[in-house]
Specification:
The chain is 38% helix and 12% strand. It is built from 6 helices and 6 strands. It holds the Pfam family STAS.
């Protein structure tokens, strides 16, 4: 509709240009409004689903599983940093990190392991990749064990180029959230299922 109105009121060339610019702005605005989802274990299964979908999903004390379902690039890196700081308690001392849209209740026990589900990160540029590397470094300094799950090949190449493997080891990279959670449970010395299914 925007393109049609622009073509009618201006000209064909200008109208098409307005349509392209408007589409790009729409994509950017949508990525800015995406929420980071905290995941919990669906009772009786090995599936991890957004906690806001039900109050019956299980949370393990000391374990935080987060899903960031949007491309990670220069336009979203600030939002990514603020959201992760709030969930993990990594805000600067003396400054209150703004509360993002997300689950209403925070986990009282300090987080010891965090699993970042990257299945929704379809693309990452150099700026976004450096943000992940900085997050990994801050988690390490804070004593939080960071695990990455379901990174696609393109995103993994960008993260590696940005120096991710200088901060984390290959043992902290997993093909599924279930495998990462099982490793986290072992690290937290909790009894949990040893076999994992692939969530598709």
């Amino acid at each position: 509709m925007v393109t049609w109105v622009a073509v009618v009121t201006l000209s064909v060339d200008l109208g098409l240009a307005v349509g392209v610019v408007f589409s790009m702005m729409t994509v950017v605005c949508r990525t800015q409004r995406v929420q980071c989802l905290a995941l919990g274990l669906a009772e009786g299964t090995e599936l991890y689903r957004p906690l806001r979908e039900s109050h019956k999903f299980l949370q393990v004390p000391g374990l935080c599983i987060l899903s960031y379902p949007t491309p990670l690039y220069f336009g979203t890196r600030g939002q990514f940093r603020r959201i992760l700081e709030w969930h993990l308690g990594l805000g600067e001392r003396g400054k209150e990190t703004p509360k993002p849209d997300g689950p209403p209740d925070a986990v009282a026990e300090p987080i010891r392991v965090v699993v970042l589900d990257c299945s929704g990160v379809t693309f990452a540029d150099a700026a976004g990749a450096r943000e992940v590397v900085q997050l990994a470094s801050r988690c390490r300094d804070a004593g939080i064990h960071l695990l990455l799950a379901q990174c696609n090949a393109s995103v993994m190449r960008t993260l590696t180029w940005a120096g991710l493997l200088d901060t984390v080891t290959p043992e902290q990279l997993f093909v599924s959230v279930q495998d990462a959670a099982a490793h986290a449970l072992e690290r937290l010395e909790l009894a949990g299922p040893k076999t994992c299914t692939v969530w598709v």
